[in-house]
Amino acid sequence: MKVKVFILVFFLLMISIPVDAQCAMCRAVLENEDGGQAAKGINNGIVYLMIFPYLLIGGVGYAIYRLRKNAKKA
Q1: Could you give the number of structural domains in the chain?
Q2: What is the mean pLDDT of the chain?
Q3: Contact, 70 vs 62, CB < 8 A?
């Protein structure tokens, strides 16, 4: 069971989907300058900053899971 979950998570992490995190107005303004290079940089920064809340929520969820699992054993 653990091997199947590990393989599934591994393949899901390997899938790469391009995302655009900017609003339409920000994208329109930034693409008019420097051939869109500033827009790409801003977009990458937004996506990078979006990762941390999900990691935090995942960490808290995992901690709660571990606490409940240990409480059932005791």
Answers
A1: 1
A2: 83
A3: no
